[in-house]
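Please check what follows.
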Amino acid sequence: MLRDARAREFSLLRVLVEIALGTTVFVAGSMWWQLRKRKALVKEIVTHEVRLAELIVRDALPAPPSNAPTNDSALYPIQLFEIELRTDLYSQRIPRILATIVLLSALVASYFVAAWCVWTNLGIVLLIGLVPVMDSAIKSANDHVLALAAILQRWRLENSAECDSFITPRASLHKLYDAVKRLEIV
C-alpha cells in the first residue's frame, strides 16, 4: 500500500515536471523563433522596395531641424548609425542567447525525464516555428528601419557627399537609401 502511494506520488511528480518542461519549451521556443523571424524581417524590409515605400513616408520620419545650432560635441551621423545598429543587435542578442540556453536546458532535462518527452518538446519547438511573426516583432523591426532612415535623412541634409560615400560600398543599404532620397523628390 505504501509502495503504491509512493508510485502515485512519483508519477504525479513526473507529470508535473513534464508539464513544466513543456511550458518552458513553449515560452523559450516562441521567444527564440520570434527573435529569428524579426531579424529576417528587418533584412526583408531593408531590401524590399515596396515595403520601404510603404514604411518610409514623410510623416513617419521626424522633421529635420531647421536652423538648428551646431554642437561641436554632438555625435557624427556615422556614429549615430553605428549606435543604432549596435543597440538593436545587443537588444536582440541577449534575449536570443537566454532563450537558447533555457531551451537547450529544458530539452536536456526532458531527456532525463523520458525519451518521449524530448521528442514531444522538440515537436513543440518545431510547431511554434509555424506561428506567424507577432505584431510586436513587426513593430520593432519597422521602428529600427525608421530610425536608420531618419539618421540617413538627417545625414543627407547635412552632408550628402559624405552620406553617399558611406552608402556606396554597402549594397545592403542601397534600397533604404533610395527610399530616403525619394522623400526629397516628393
The chain has seven helices and no strands. Confidence is low (pLDDT under 50) at residues 64-70. Residues 57 and 183 are 7 Å apart (CA to CA). Residues 2-47 form the longest helix (46 residues).
